[in-house]
Design brief:
heterodimer, A: 92 residues, alpha+beta, Ubiquitin-like (UB roll), five-stranded mixed β-sheet, 2 helices, B: 389 residues, alpha/beta, Rossmann fold, Oxidized Rhodanese, domain 1, five-stranded parallel β-sheet, 17 helices, 13 strands, 35% helix, elongated
Chain lengths: 92, 389
């Protein structure tokens, strides 16, 4: 079981939950599971051709999955997956 | 430890300054040497708003010698909830003038340069060369990418902070060995996908929390003390009061700071962020009526169904007695609406309701119209007793 942390811009698509537990062996499976449960998340995380959007980073614990095995990164019990999108607010 | 690479000329402290900064001087981590470094430092703040306010205030108090502030905006009433350098009396005034007055009052030793200009690809490089560190307090993606690229190209560290609702991020980009913003986010989100503060709201204290973190990192870089956030992304969750850290790595393939750089000049950032050439906003293309027309129809007791697509907490502030159906729920609850009736959809300013009208028209509703300007326009032109928010 891994916990997926949902950033605030996306919580409106997960019924306001800040984290979602998923049962998955890899990061890719965890994200698919998440999107299957909350389909409105899909277009915010994935582009039309099924790739994870470039302005969304996915971390397993504190490491960017790009520097692990990306979607194939294996998950251990209790791992935390963080979805970290870019936010720009600051002066407005 | 990341430090500035240039050696600065000795900055002499007067007796008044020594007394002023006594609480710094009695700490070995700062001392006379550190305070002199602060005085010799030149920091450029991009923005005198939410993040810029605490940044500029604390850097000035700490004794940073030269502060540059870039802002072309005017103080708005709705800024006062979080942009604490500005007061009620400053509404309508240039942010730079308001900021300059408060900063000089805090510390007359400050050498303040106000730059009332929009930061662009044409002026950024030359401007950044005149400073040692850039603190990014902007509120839009094109400027963030511009600041990042200009920092990498001029070799200046970029002290980064950003906020949204009640969460923030902070880091230090563009140091010699560390990653830059593009290493983390190679591409911006398409416009319209991530709401701005005006659309999403922001907890007033949040830019204070993140802005002071940026000021702290700036001072640490100048002093050469402590462990900077270079290589780390600090995530701030104000509601949970949780601070988390994620590792940031320099991306070897980064186009601007990697091994094979393809970006060696500043580009058109609006185009990069997809803003240029964007289609006309949805509001301009859906059938609409004005608030005056709606008033006439209501006075004539026409059979109109008012659909309010805002959120419940907005309905509580003010409403037109409309049927509340938040925009995000529309797809699942569309069967609650009767397509044989004339439906006027409204929200706060006309943006969300335009999307609702577009959705309903695509779903086969023929008599649905957008209320141009939303309930805000109603409050301005029809019912001045109604609050605006």
């Amino acid at each position: 079981m891994a916990q997926v942390q949902i950033p605030s811009p996306l919580r409106q698509y997960t019924q306001k939950q800040a984290s979602v537990n998923v049962s998955a062996k890899t990061v890719g499976d965890a994200l698919s599971g998440l999107v299957a449960r909350h389909p409105e998340l899909k277009r915010h995380l994935y582009s039309e051709d099924g790739k994870l959007r470039a302005f969304v980073n996915v971390y397993v614990n504190d490491e960017d999955m790009r520097y692990l095995e990306k979607e194939a990164t294996a998950l251990q019990e209790g791992d935390t997956i963080s979805i970290v999108p870019s936010i720009a607010g600051g002066g407005c | 430890m990341t430090t500035l690479t240039e050696t600065k000329p000795e900055a002499v402290l007067s007796n008044d300054e020594i007394l002023r900064y006594s609480r710094h001087l009695i700490m070995p981590e700062v001392g006379m040497e550190g305070q002199q470094k602060l005085k010799a430092a030149r920091v450029l703040c991009i923005g005198a708003g939410g993040l810029g306010s605490p940044l500029a205030l604390y850097l000035t108090a700490a004794g940073v010698g030269t502060l540059g502030i870039v802002d072309f905006d005017v103080v708005d009433y709705t800024n006062l909830q979080r942009q604490i350098i500005h007061t009620t009396a400053d509404v309508g005034r240039k942010k730079l003038d308001s900021a300059a007055e408060k900063l000089k009052a805090i510390n007359p030793f400050l050498n303040l340069r106000t730059l009332e200009t929009r930061l662009t690809s044409a002026n950024a490089l030359e401007l950044f060369r005149e400073f040692d560190i850039v603190a990014d307090g902007t509120d839009n993606f094109p400027t963030r990418y511009l600041v990042n690229d200009a920092c990498v190209l001029t070799g200046k560290p970029n002290v980064y902070g950003s906020i949204f609702r009640f969460e923030g991020q902070a880091s230090v980009f563009a140091t010699q060995e560390g990653p830059c913003y593009r290493c983390l986010y190679p591409e911006p989100p398409p416009p319209g996908l991530v709401p701005s503060c005006a659309e999403g709201g922001v907890l007033g204290i949040l830019p204070g929390l993140v802005g002071v973190i940026q000021a702290t990192e700036t001072i640490k870089l100048i002093l050469g003390q402590g462990d900077s956030l270079a290589g780390r992304l600090l995530l701030v969750d104000a509601l949970g009061m949780k601070f988390r850290e994620l590792k940031l790595r320099k991306n070897p393939d980064c186009p601007v700071c990697g091994k094979n750089r393809t970006i060696t000049r500043l580009i058109d950032y609006e185009e990069f962020c997809g803003i240029r050439g964007q289609e006309a906003p949805v509001e301009d293309v859906v059938p609409a009526i004005s608030v005056e027309e709606l008033k006439k129809k209501l006075d004539a007791k026409a059979d109109i169904f008012i659909l309010d697509v805002r959120e419940p907490h907005e309905y509580q502030i003010c409403n037109l007695n409309g049927y509340l159906l938040p925009l995000n729920d529309l797809p699942k609850r569309v069967n609650e609406l009767d397509s044989s009736r004339e439906i006027i959809a409204h929200c706060k300013m006309g943006g969300r309701s335009a999307k609702a009208v577009q959705f309903l028209r695509q779903a086969g509703f023929k008599k649905v119209y957008n209320l141009t300007g939303g309930i805000t326009a109603w409050a301005e032109k029809v019912d001045p007793g109604m609050p605006k928010y």
